[in-house]
Design goal:
This is diguanylate cyclase. Keywords: Phosphoprotein, Plasmid. The chain is an alpha/beta fold and about 300 residues long. It has helices at about 15-25, 35-45, 60-70, 90-95, 110-135, 145-160, 175-180, 185-200, 225-240, 275-290; strands spanning about 5-10, 30, 50-55, 80-85, 100-105, 165-170, 210-215, 215-220, 260-265, 295. The structure holds 3'-deoxy-guanosine-5'-triphosphate and magnesium ion (3 copies). The site of one magnesium ion (MG) has 5 residues, from β6.
Length: about 300
């Protein structure tokens, strides 16, 4: 497990030295001696926690905190103010800006260590929860929630530029018979392998393979035109077949196969995520109807 990174921001080097001595054994420590430098460092190397001095020449700590909380890339990083301004008004102001805690100088090493430890642990749990909320536990792929969120944002983005978008739906053929023949745990292993094959078949960093539910998968390919989409869909089909997972009760092949539906078009401003899903699903239904183990677009 990574140790966690802490950014210490203070215009007085002696303060940085005191805090660094408390934290360096347990964390990676980064330093900034001005507000602007702190913002630059945080954007370049987002830390897990920021210890932020209030009184600094140039941009003060309150303003740095405001800018951090305004920046979607940084807003989740916990900020602890470290300051000699121990009065209630200043503490209230810091907390109302979104800081998670307030530590007064002179620094008490044990208190600083404990508070930082608590907040780092909370941040770790929060990150873990956020990642679990968008990940399918069985396959490690994005889950339906993440996929729908990504589709919504792509439909909005590409709807403005009129660029190509492709949505692919994938469903394992005769999977009920597979479970009945080989058992549910083998069914689970089959789903994991198909998910991995799907991941290998998509090429671009912006492509999003996901487990949509049960034995159904989906793939969003931003920018992929019908020709490119058909190639990826064929790749998926071939990758799954070459897993050579025996399926003696499949009516169409001795091995596991998938049926695929492809919706690929220029994204227009009045299109909705639901329209894209419906079209991909309709094409998938046609693949099933026409005999399975095929791609329809
Ligand atoms: P078709 O070719 O028409 O798709 O037939 P099918 O049998 O695959 O379709 P159906 O939707 O009737 O069955 C899907 C099966 O997938 C039923 C369900 O028990 C199984 N299934 C869904 N989720 C899981 C899972 O997480 N693990 C396992 N092992 N099986 C699952
Ligand atoms: Mg200062
Ligand atoms: Mg199904
Ligand atoms: Mg099926």
């Amino acid at each position: 497990m990574s140790r966690g990174t802490i950014l210490i921001v203070d215009d007085e080097v002696s303060n940085i030295e005191i805090m660094n001595a408390v934290l360096e054994d347990d964390y990676e420590v980064l330093f900034s001696t001005s507000g602007q430098q702190a913002l630059d460092t945080a954007r370049a190397t987002p830390p897990d926690l920021i210890l932020l001095d209030v009184l600094m020449p140039g941009i003060d700590g309150f303003e740095v905190c405001r800018q951090i909380k305004d920046d979607p890339q940084l807003a989740d990083i916990p900020v602890i103010f470290t300051t000699g301004l121990g009065d209630t008004d200043h503490e209230m102001r810091g907390l109302s800006l979104g800081a998670i805690d307030y530590v007064t100088k002179p620094i008490q090493p044990a208190i600083l260590r404990a508070r930082v430890g608590n907040h780092i642990e909370l941040k770790r749990l929060r990150d873990q929860l956020a990642s679990m909320a968008v990940t399918d536990a069985l396959t490690g792929l994005s889950n339906r929630r993440q996929m729908e969120q990504a589709l919504k944002s792509e439909v909005g983005r590409l709807g403005r530029t009129g660029d190509w978008l492709t949505v692919i739906m994938i469903d394992i053929d005769f999977f009920k018979q597979f479970n009945d023949t080989y058992g549910h745990p083998a069914g689970d292993r089959c789903i994991v392998m198909v998910g991995a094959a799907l991941t290998r078949a998509v090429k671009r960093a912006s492509d999003l393979p996901a487990r949509y539910g049960g034995e159904e998968f989906a793939c969003i390919l931003p920018g992929a035109d019908p020709e490119g989409a058909a190639l990826v869909a064929q790749e998926i089909s071939l990758h799954v077949q070459s897993l050579n997972i025996p399926h003696e009760r499949s009516q169409i092949s001795p091995f596991i196969t998938v049926s695929i539906g492809v919706a690929s078009a220029r994204c227009l401003p009045d299109m909705t995520p639901e329209m894209w899903m419906k079209e991909a699903d309709r094409q998938l239904y046609l693949s099933k109807q026409q005999g399975r183990n095929r791609v329809t677009s």
